[in-house]
Structure formats: C-alpha cells, structure tokens
Amino acid sequence: KKVDKFDLPIIEKYIKQAFENRQIKEKVSFKKEEFEIDCNHSQNYASLKLKTEDKKGIISTIMDVFDKYNISVEDVKISSHKNIARDLFIIPKESSFCEKKEKILEDLCK
What we know:
Number of strands: 4
Largest sheet: 4 strands, antiparallel
Oligomer: single chain
Helix content: 25-40%
Mean pLDDT: 90
Distance between the termini: 48 Å
Radius of gyration: 18 Å
Low-confidence stretches: none
Structural class: alpha+beta
Strand order of the largest sheet: 1-2-4-3
Shape: elongated
C-alpha cells in the first residue's frame, strides 16, 4: 500500500522517536567469574560465554557495552533453564574484541 505524502512527516516522527528512546530500562551488573572469553574460538571468531542468574536486561546491557566499543556480533545463542542464563556471543576477530576485552569486562562488571 502506498503512503500519502501528508503522512510522511508523521511516520518519520514515530520512527525517530522509536530510536531516540532506545534506553536500557534495567541495567545489569555482572561478576568477572561469570564470563569465559575464548579469543581462539575459531580462525576468524572469538567467543564470550556468560553463565549468570537469569534477569531482565542481560542481552541489552551487553550489547550496549559492545556498541560503546564498536564490537560487532556474528551470532548469539541465548538459553535459560531453572533461572540460569547461558549466553554465547560469537564475535568476529576483526572487531578487535580481544584487544578491548579488559575494558569491556570492566564496564560489564561495575
């Protein structure tokens, strides 16, 4: 269906608002021992594994920190069982994750 030109400014306004209000509602803090980092997961990828108590905001908190350090993610596997979250992030080595891992962990474990 085509959009009427009259509606374009209204649609644009809603789209901008959706992205401007992108805030983490529940920021999560982690412990360093909950993470396992493998910089040699494969030839082209590193991995970050997380095992922690399941709660709201885990993925959004991690992705917010990754975004801060310009870390791209190739794949994420998310699972939870009996209130335990087990998440695996596959990260391209070209994003320099391993060089930034200490700063990233510091931000995640505040």
